[in-house]
Fold these 3 entries.
Entry 1:
Amino acid sequence: MYVSVRDIPRGAPVPRVVVVLGLVSLVTDISSEMVTAILPLFATLALGLTPLAYGMLDGLYQGATVLVRLLGGFFADRLRRPKLVAGAGYALGAAAKLMLLPVAGAGALSAAVAVDRAGKGLRTAPRDLLIATAAPRDRLGRSFGVHRALDATGALLGPVVAFGLLALAPGDFDMVFVVSFCAAVLGVLLFLQRVPERTPVPDRPVSPRDVVALLRIGGFLRLLCACAVLSAATIGDGFLYLVLLNGESVTTRWFPLLFVGTSLVYLALAVPFGRLSDRHGRNRVFTAGYGLLLCAYLTAILVGGFLGAVLCLTFLGAYYAATDGVLPAAATPMLPAELTATGISVVQAAVAGGRALGAVAFGAVWTVTEGAAAVWIFAAALTAALLTAVPMITRARDPRTESR
Amino acid sequence: MTQPAPRGRDRRDRIVTVVAVLVALVAVGYVTLSVLRTGATGAEGDVELPEGRQLVFRSLRPSPTFGHLAVLPADDLRRERVVLPTRCERTAASPAGGLCLRQTRDPLQPFAATLLDERLRPSGEAPVNGIPSRARVSEDGRYYATTTFVTGHSYLSDGFSTETVIGRVGGDPVGDVERFTFLLNGRPNENVDRNVWGVTFVPGGERFFATVATQDRRYLVEGDIGRRTLTALRENAECPSLSPDGGHLVYKKRTGLNTDVWRFHVLDLATGAETPLAETRSVDDQAAWLDDGHVMYAVPKGGAGGRAADVWVVPLGAGAPRLLVQDADSPTVRSPAPGGASR
């Protein structure tokens, strides 16, 4: 562990807790992504649900997580026990894998998925608070970058492990669920054992009224608005991949690899972009990320063929690297210490809510127009969102968000 | 860490390490068991198939041969099933052969179609995109049809579509049926959101029936492989299945509002009269004909990780549905040529 924040030279490693949290996320993501990857297969082949019914089930909980996320942030701050709240989230995730074993129908499946999503929603903000507390202020972007790179590695390995196991024993979904459960338990053990609880500071407990007061912090409110506007103009990876498919840039055979390509770019760029954000301003890198997303849209429709697909995935992965970890890093310095988890959960909820809205809107546009036209509409919307957001958060330099 | 390590810490460290090792061992042990279980196959080599009309299905008995192809004499279903070494997710059979949609060990191509010869032994391979949903073969064995759900990766639950492909045994594939010309009210329909599923072949020709969905409506269509057309016949009919005498079609008809609630109906092709069957449960399956008077289908029953099902049968006329074969799905009946190849 580091001794003094000031003495760390440029390029020094991030605090050990951040790496441990990254490893916990890696193991936990292997566990949950192995299940997510085979769940459509399990639902349609084993349970006989239609993909449409499964899709609805999936969509239902995307909305519910937004609420749980906010609760996770708020309780981490109110109880001043981020480790406890995050630990509960990790434990719920493990319990969900166990619930999948006796599943025999849509009802039981949706209950298991609900518990899993609740766990994920609950742990996100307190975990980000633990990272934010451990990381030195001038190294926030980089620390979140390290965490996100490890997290993305787990998400990438999960499906590989799941399909590898199914190849060994075709059709034995229970076995995949058992392995996933064991991985989740290992994640919980690592978290409990190697992450210290922040010592509680005796102070007046946080009330919901304090949460409203967050909105009076000018820089934070502007960042929040920018998040909502920008994320509402996102298409959703699934649809973007469908655009590539419709444009015959790729065939269905290569579909799983689109996700792999995006993740590889994401995990490769998460740390460099985090460092870039520490040096040149986190809000700037965050908004630039949406510029990269705009490039992804445009390459998907303008550049055809294999090259178009590669460019599109590169831009998409870069967009995630420039936004996902940079956002909490940008928000943290603006927030009062006792409300950091709440504040992080609020901006992340804004992004999640915006994305869900964007996906629904794009789905609606997609059904009435042809593929390319729908992307053009969203490219225009994203351009408008960028023109709104850029002056909002990058012009007025908030001294607290910049390290220089 | 910043605080001095308490004395009990080493002990706790050791306990947690032991627990972690135990958890890892459980995972390894379970995988090993599972691999050993699936490695054991049923009958090896050449298997004696029952004489006469055969009911071919997927055996779902809880055993190492779960999911394997199995055969029973159609006229004496109480006999012990003959389990074949081939494992399938969906299957269909005709006198000339059969089709088995199965999981592969290749993550990039997780499913494939195995063509079966007249003794139901693997005789060829064809790639399949997506998760198997329906399988059918034509009476003469010249054509086969597969319907799959093309969901791609789990991150793509936003959009799904079906892919229905007709293959020609020992010839050029006919290809994706979605690309056929869809004639609605006599005019070509250009909707891009078209989905096709549930093919049933008309014996002896190049015609078939199937379902076409577009703009949230589902049509029963008659397809022509030679002319590459799909002609809409009527609305709200999915997964048709043609009776052996060619006189009736059985299909799923949506009876709920916007939800996946179906009831089997039978259409008399000569008169155009549509009659609901006595089965009142909502069943999501492409029915098959046991004979000209009886329709069979699989009903999921949970258990075995939700994968168990029974095959039920219902008469066209009066009479309640009854259990036909326990622990089975994907049933089709075939009548090998008398004294012919199945011997």
Note: Residues 231 and 355 of chain A are 5 Å apart (CA to CA).
Entry 2:
Amino acid sequence: MTDLLYARAQMGLSLAFHIVFAAAGVALPVLMVLSDWKQRRTGDADYRKLSQKLAKGTAILFAVGAVSGTVLSFELGLLWPEFMGQYGEVIGLPFSLEGVAFFTEAIFLGIYLYGRERVSPGLHLFSGVMVAVSGAASAFFVTLVNVFMNDPSGFVATPHGPTDIEPLKAMFSPGWLTQTSHVLLSCYQASAFAMAGIHAFVLLRHPGSAFHRKALSVALPLACVTALLQPVVGDLSAKHVAKAQPVKLAAMEGQFETERGAPLRVGGLPDVETGTVSHALDIPKGLSILAFGDPNAEVKGLNEFPRDTWPPVAKVHVAFQVMVGTGSAMALLALVTLGYRWRRKAWPSGRKMMWAWLVSGPLGLVALEAGWLVTEWGRQPWIVRGVMRTADAVTPVPHLAAPFWTFTVVYVFLGVVVVALLKRQVADTLPDREPKGPDAKGGGAHVH
Amino acid sequence: MSTDAVLGFVLAGTFVLYALFGGADFGGGVWDLLSFGPRKAEQRALIARAMGPVWEVNHIWLIVGVVLLFAGFPRAFAALSVALHVPLTLLLLGIVFRGAAFTFRTYDMRGDAAQRQWGLVFSGASIVAPLLLGMCVGAVVSGSIRVEGRVVVSGFFASWLSPFSWAVGVLALALFAFLAAVFLTHEASGAELREDFRKRALGAGVAVFIAALVVLLLAREGAPRVWEGLSRSPFALALHGATGVAAVTAFALLWTRRFQWARLAAALQAGLIVLGWAASQYPYLVVPDVTLQGAAASPAAQRLLLIALAVGALTVIPSIALLFRVFRPRPEGASTGDSGH
């Protein structure tokens, strides 16, 4: 592997790792505040316990998200010094606002987590709301940087770097609204599905646990609403890509030749040598309709563009299929669940539905990672599309294999530990653990 | 005043805040490792209690500094990221292990052995990280990072592994340990525990003095610009003089057990040391090839950055004030409400 590839791998690894914790940091506070609010309304102690459990989960995930985010802010320079040296000032504004939002999130999370006994219930709930709001703001601002990289604006490119910089214009580069909405929804969706999956798992073993049934009732509405909104927003996002980044769209869809009435290729594996997609299910005129709203619209193919500006077609296509496939499965489950809720006036509790939610638990995270891969691979070979190539931005520092493998080992280790810790937090709420004695009540017999 | 200079000043201010809050936080980890005596467990519990709600906030000052650097002075950020790739990567590993281990220790429910292991990782990383941070500062100020055009030509190791850089690393470590000990005298709820940290603060104060002296002696060879500024510029001399006065005052106040005031003097001392560093290398961001002006972003970008900073200050400062108010140490006997619920 070349140093460029190691640098990309390290950046990819760091982001793929961080993104999970970042999504949890955005969404768990919302679920935590929702259960606080339910507790205030119903006076039900189970909701208080749920919010305390969620707060512990948030504390663990947020801490790992905070340190892995610190790593990323340095890695921008450690791996891509030319990118930051030239474009740091163009994208400095959203990054600094993201810093402000993150700061606010950390401050109020501190008050929320450690202040339950120290501040009034009103201030406590307010802190939770502030955590949720600033978490969303922080994801919003950082996504704006990615929007800029995909569709840069607000400067004039010269061989010596950007001039005539307009940071506000750069901050709101074309497509910002759809991409930020898509990302924010995915954070809520991924976290709500993961939480629903965990509680469905417990309920399959202990169907009588009231606590886990209530927890599921907090996760399901958010999971269902986001799963149904996401295809709509995703479609808008794809329509923007079709207009603004035709190469990326062509790679996503495996479209090699320019054609009118292009079919939608479901699944399959593109082969760049032959320019075909094997094993795909073609839906006639599907792509033209989806991308441009017209069955006879022309879709540009990869062959319109110089070969050295193609993204890795097979990877982008497969990642896109995974995202759309998991997204569709989640939307379907959401429809069935909401239908059940509407007819029976209660959230589903049967074994079949619990199995469906258990199996779907990881799908939100899978879709989140796949979608992120689509946007990053799909932008290659550019770090700033059309302006700076990834290969021209990479650091001159040699032996990049060393930091890559080091961070790989560290992140795998941290991932395993976090899963083990969360597992124990969940195990602590199992019905057969509860009546052990007065000491074990309320969980968390140790510090917190 | 040009936007370069204003942003440069804000950057220095950010590093002062990071040294005070992040530094004390690192220092807490040092004392966790060095806890001993009959009140060993109480010492560790006090450190964990004081750090718990604020450690994440304390370290965001570093991110603010990094963002300010790449948004306001992108060329300097690029040059430093290349020249200091190795120590910064190691520093990041330290930061990751430290934060993760501190949190895991808090939430690991498997009992004492697991907690001890996480504690060891946390406190070990608390020693390594400040050392590396100081070594990076030493490299920046020493003049051994050379940049031609946009290319770093001085290699990836020599600048931060010089004796001078090592000495700055040790100074940073001693300073952070000193700050933490002084702050903990104020946080401690019992007289005996307070006395434990008073002794540690006095010891660390002596270590700071020795390390500063060594840095000064090595500066003549290792950082000629600093040495020159020190011996010639009256402003720098006045700044270092004030640092000395603050240091002696902090020591005297600790000696006479006026902990409230000692805290203030120690913070002043640490802040002045960081400002002294900044003043000694002004107008350079990376001595001797990158200046504030040479690395500056366009005026439009810098102006918007200053506006964003103002918005940020209006949001963050009241929130931090609230945070520290909520978790201020309580009078004896009333401080048990926050843990073990």
Note: Chain B is about 80% helix and 5% strand.
Entry 3:
Amino acid sequence: MKKMKMLVIVLASLLLVLSACSWNSSDDEETVKIATMTTTESNIMGNMIKLMIEHYTDENVEMINNLGSSVVLHQAMVNGDANISAVRYTGTDLTGALKEKPLKDPEQAMALVQKLFQERFDQTFFDSYGFANTYAFMVTKETAKKYNLKKVSDLKNIAKNLQAGVDSSWVNRAGDGYKDFVKAYGFDFKDVYPMQIGLVYDALAANKMDIVLGYTTDGRIASYDLVVLEDDLHFFPPYDASPLAVNQLLEEKPQVKKAIEKLIGKISTEQMQKLNYEADNDLIEPAIVAKRFLEKNNYFEDQKEE
Amino acid sequence: MSDMNTFQQFLYYFSENGTYVFQQFLAHFLISVYGVLLAAIVGIPLGILIAKYSKLAGFIITIANIIQTIPALALLAILMLSMGLGKQTVIVAVFLYSLLPIIKNTYTGIKNINKNLIDSGKGMGMTRTQVLYMIELPLSLSVITAGIRIALVVAIGVTAIGAFIGAGGLGDIIIRGTNATNGTAIILAGAIPTALMAVFTDVILGIIERRLDPVKRHKKITTPTIQSLKD
């Protein structure tokens, strides 16, 4: 009997202690929920927004990590599982979530995306962080030297012999996917392997692939010394990176909006490459990379509030 | 970084990200414990119930069995459709997986009690509740604990997969490792604490289980009395 009582007491106190931990707050309206994708960049920016919000407000911020693609991210936002997306790209969302034709001009694309998100989903697509994460074909330094490659057009004669690894969400994309790429450049590769984007750089460095389609801000471009081929026909639309938030949240909590706005225009493509490099190559967690970056910049406090 | 071997990278990773790993470790553990605790709250009374009304036993154990056969990733995906992303979905998944070991062990624990003990209890004039609290539960407690132990170890594994639906925890670190250049060290930094958590949980609950075992407990008490008789 004593043991029984002990057990009951232990269980009860455990329950009390656990329920006191408020991380699982069930109040959906109250918590700010930031959704991020599997990419390091998305992770870093998500953590940056989290830290900014925590620095400037008393909000309880929850992270939803590792979502597969921007389509999943969009669904999560629409379903109310999340109310902030860490990073969204104009090009991706224009053809993905909004199902529009791709635009080649960065400013037009941004304006249209911002307008359509307001109208259709009641969400605010902020101005860009300052970096663009465009798709680009890249090869190893050796391959580039061997075939004297500088731009995508240079591939024309050798593409038949090349195995290409590409982002799985790019292959079937309408407007700027593989089919349109073939049409625009007039050649196709020997084999095209859709892969998870994180693996393409390793596949290239390990010579499993001859050429891959990767992101321009990826830290591994520098760490593997890869050569990015210039998109000389301007086939890839602009992918300016911005945060996206649900309007309801921004109206209820204007402080959150202010905290996010402080990051707008603060991070260049080179800066982002550096941050990605720190996380991917130097084994520092995105959460810590984000924290160090913000601490170094004093949480952008000097900036005057509008 | 490339000049370090995996082990050095692993140590370096911990020196840089120690606090982060600890946070994730705690979050991971709490998700598992929450799920199992909920399952215990539901499962133990249910186990007692089906031990008393054996007609229900087949039905309920079959259902729990069926839940157990669903692969973790599939269960998470199904739950995600109705419950959305995040921790609560994983907690429910853990809850569902924990039901079978807890119900079954409670059921077995109570069924296997020597009928003579219960009869003598009744003969002493105990009510049904008294029989339950004074005979059946104390005697089956170690078996029930064994069920919780199995459930918690499984739960830690399920929670790791939960990172795919944005629940966080150590699975987050493992997934990040698969995306990073020098992934091996990061994968290990997520996987080793997960494994250690499971092993330690198993060992600690194993000790508790043995403490609660009436046979072994009995031995401990009887040995000194025999000695004292000799004196």
Note: The CA atoms of residues 25 and 32 of chain B lie 11 Å apart.
